[in-house]
């Protein structure tokens, strides 16, 4: 077969390419696909890689009428082939042409497409050969099936649903939401904004929520995540409610324990109630950085609030009681957020919270190598704040306790005793500075710093510095904003005994003591005055 011939597909060939089952033989289909009307036979052989197979296959495809040579397509029907140059015309055997017009004797026909000029065929074939490498085989466009239509319909429905959710006028339902929340909390509720958010999860968001006419509780945002069946079932189920930026005043602490009773929820079932960034305001001081959740029982409603601080050192539980809210707190390595800043190794507090009043019946703290137990009442209101309590302490490290109280540690030893505490101030934050305490103490196996009683009994002039070790040191204790008074002081150190009293006010010491030194030869007894400052006391012998 001539390598310069160019074939193209007939309409039957185009149909055979589209119908994959029409040509079973692989060679026929392969060659039919690469025939594009531009590549000549030589180019087709190069593409297929088997010259003999291409020759045989092209001949068979041409016989089947699936391809056609461009020369055959351009030749007009009935047009005679070129006269061979070897044919000789013999004079006399050709009759002269008649004068009758040919058009009158023969039927007309459309002029055939002229063949390419002889001089342009070589250039044209080269041009077609160059384009054959770039021409892509035309393939039929895929038909859109039923699954694609279904998927498109679903996507369109989802898009319309999202637009409907975003453009829904939620603000029109804000009064209904405020009315339901007011009934659930048994208090007046105002909502600043109502809408839908999709991050971090799809939810209904309430913003700038205020509880109470005086605003004793507020929340920056409340995110509600309902169950998928929320709109269809008679029982409305809410999977999670996340409340962030909660602020509670003194009045709001007790009222929060009475929120969400079972009869106020109606046909709504709550799952988890999560609290984040809770701050409890006590006037001039506050407890910040709390988080936790509300535990809700389907039959009883709100069971308790469970909160913890940011460091995880303090846990607080608030449960509704019959007449007051029940408070339970436990801490580990917890430091009080107010002055004096005391560090508790362990702490347990249980009590009752009512309107402006907290009565704790159990107070058990482990701190400074010892233990403190007690009970008391903390009250606050328009008239101010007040505290009354009784404490019993055992084996406290006296020097560490005095250092925590910002007092120079003038004594060491294990301190035990009882204290009565009272305080009254315009606000809760001022109670620590207004504490009045009275009681007795007993310190065992310690050291009295900067006072040397044994040296003072022998000296004739005032002395400073030194130390006195003792087995037992006890006395009465009273302190208020004016100073500290130590009465009925008794000290035992080996053969030495001492008694006296002292007052510390404004950093100055004033007092007296009687020291007795016993021995085999007799007893030595001397009185002395105590003066100087708390940080540098002075003993003056009295003769």
Automatic annotation (TrEMBL):
Keywords: Membrane, Transmembrane, Transmembrane helix. PANTHER family: DUF748 DOMAIN-CONTAINING PROTEIN. The chain crosses the membrane at residues 144-168. GO terms for cellular component: plasma membrane. It comes from Candidatus Nitricoxidivorans perseverans. InterPro entries: AsmA-related. The keyword Transcription does not apply. The lineage of its organism: Bacteria, Pseudomonadati, Pseudomonadota, Betaproteobacteria, Nitrosomonadales. One of its GO terms (biological process) is regulation of protein targeting to membrane. This is AsmA family protein.
């Amino acid at each position: 077969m001539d390598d310069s011939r160019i074939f193209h597909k007939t309409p039957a060939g185009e149909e055979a390419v589209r119908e994959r089952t029409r040509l079973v033989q692989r060679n026929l289909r392969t060659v039919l696909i690469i025939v594009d009307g531009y590549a000549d036979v030589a180019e087709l052989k190069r593409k297929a890689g088997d010259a003999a197979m291409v020759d045989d296959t092209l001949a068979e495809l041409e016989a089947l009428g699936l391809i056609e040579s461009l020369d055959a397509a351009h030749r007009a029907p009935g047009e005679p082939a070129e006269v061979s140059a070897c044919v000789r015309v013999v004079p006399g055997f050709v009759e002269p042409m008649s004068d009758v017009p040919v058009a009158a004797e023969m039927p007309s026909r459309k002029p055939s497409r002229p063949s390419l000029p002889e001089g342009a065929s070589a250039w044209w074939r080269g041009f077609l050969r160059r384009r054959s490498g770039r021409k892509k085989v035309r393939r039929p466009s895929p038909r859109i099936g039923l699954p694609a239509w279904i998927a498109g319909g679903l996507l369109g429905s989802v898009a319309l649903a999202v637009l409907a959710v975003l453009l829904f006028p939620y603000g029109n339902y804000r009064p209904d939401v405020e009315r339901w929340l007011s009934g659930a909390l048994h208090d007046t509720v105002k909502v600043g904004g109502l809408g839908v958010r999709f991050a971090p999860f799809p939810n209904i968001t309430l913003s700038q929520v205020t509880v109470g006419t005086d605003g004793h509780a507020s929340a920056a945002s409340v995110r509600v995540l309902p169950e998928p069946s929320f709109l269809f079932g008679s029982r409305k189920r809410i999977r999670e409610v996340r409340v962030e930026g909660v602020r509670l005043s003194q009045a709001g602490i007790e009222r929060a324990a009475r929120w969400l009773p079972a009869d106020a929820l109606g046909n709504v079932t709550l799952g988890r109630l999560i609290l984040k960034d809770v701050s409890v305001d006590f006037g001039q001081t506050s407890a910040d950085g709390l988080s936790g959740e509300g535990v809700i029982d389907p039959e009883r409603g709100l069971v308790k609030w469970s909160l913890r601080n940011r460091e995880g050192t303090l846990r607080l539980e608030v449960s509704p009681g019959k007449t007051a809210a029940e408070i339970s707190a436990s801490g580990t390595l917890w430091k009080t957020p107010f002055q004096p800043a005391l560090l508790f190794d362990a702490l347990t507090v249980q009590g009752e919270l009512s309107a402006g009043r907290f009565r704790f019946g159990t107070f058990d703290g482990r701190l400074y190598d010892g233990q403190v137990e007690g009970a008391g009442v903390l009250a606050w209101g328009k008239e101010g704040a007040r505290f009354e309590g009784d404490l019993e302490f055992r084996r406290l490290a006296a020097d560490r306790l005095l250092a925590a109280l910002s007092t120079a540690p003038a004594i060491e030893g294990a301190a035990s005793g009882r204290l009565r505490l009272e305080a009254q101030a315009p606000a809760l934050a001022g109670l620590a500075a207004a504490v009045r305490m009275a009681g007795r103490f007993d310190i065992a196996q310690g050291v009295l710093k900067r006072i040397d009683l044994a040296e003072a009994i022998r000296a004739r002039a005032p002395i400073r510095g030194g130390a006195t070790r003792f087995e037992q040191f006890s006395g009465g204790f009273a302190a208020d904003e004016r100073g500290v008074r130590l009465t009925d002081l008794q000290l035992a150190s080996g053969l030495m005994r001492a008694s006296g009293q002292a007052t510390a006010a404004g950093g100055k010491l004033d007092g007296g003591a009687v020291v007795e030194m016993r021995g085999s030869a007799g007893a030595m007894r001397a009185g002395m005055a105590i003066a100087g400052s708390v940080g540098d006391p002075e003993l003056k012998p009295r003769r």
